[in-house]
Amino acid sequence: MRKMVLAASMAALVTLFGVMRCATTADRPGAADEHQKFLDVQKGGGELFRVLFLSDKYVVRQMWGEDSIKRSEDPGGDTYMRNELKRHDKFNEVRESVMSVWLYPDSGSLMKIRPREPTFLFEIDKILLEDLQRWSFKFPRKYVSPTKFEVRYRVVLRKTLSDQEIMKDLQENLKEKSAY
């Protein structure tokens, strides 16, 4: 059993090392322009918020409905979520995700959140769900509207450690897991 865990762990390390060698839009010179275009898209439709999410930047842009709904500011929560994402800055990748959000019509609190377009990175999708669960809203007109909308995320992961540091960190994590 222990040999199977070790073999699976080594296969995961080799796969991750191969992924780390790939470069995507995160390290290209025009990436900042792409991020700005993402935030400056035309208003309308069911997409109410856009979020640019990096380990050192968290920007929320409301696309429409400013007179009926506003996201409550939460700088401490934004910082916490950036720190959570920082743990995954082991390779360069840019992914987008769309989450559907339903609110209770009487209180305006979250009823349910469903990923409509996941990033297909399990750990990142989990962070996005956790991020939305902490959101709260204000309603200037004193009634809840809209009760259903979408939030589009652009998640940017950037490789900040050397390959040796990443491999050492992964080996330590595997040793901790195999000790159980």
Describe the protein in words.
The chain has 180 residues and is an alpha+beta fold. It has one domain. It contains 5 helices and 7 strands, in the order ααβββαββαββα. The strands form 2 sheets. Strands 2-1-7-4-5 form a 5-stranded mixed beta sheet, sandwiched between helices. Strands 3-6 form a two-stranded antiparallel sheet. It starts with a helix and ends with a helix.
Essential attributes:
single chain; 180 residues; alpha+beta; 5-stranded mixed sheet; two-stranded antiparallel sheet; 7 strands; globular
Shape: globular
Strand order of the largest sheet: 2-1-7-4-5
Sheet having the most strands? 5 strands, mixed
Which class best fits the helix and strand makeup?
alpha+beta
Number of domains: 1
Report a brief summary of the structure.
The chain has 180 residues and is α+β, with helices and mostly antiparallel strands. The protein has helices at 2-20, 31-39, 75-86, 122-133, 163-178; strands spanning 47-54, 57-62, 70-71, 93-103, 110-117, 137-138, 148-157. It has a five-stranded mixed sheet, sandwiched between helices. Strands 3-6 form a two-stranded antiparallel sheet.
SSE topology:
Blueprint: H1 2-20, H2 31-39, E1 47-54, E2 57-62, E3 70-71, H3 75-86, E4 93-103, E5 110-117, H4 122-133, E6 137-138, E7 148-157, H5 163-178
Parallel strand pairs: 1-7
Antiparallel strand pairs: 1-2, 3-6, 4-5, 4-7
Helix pairs in contact: 1-5
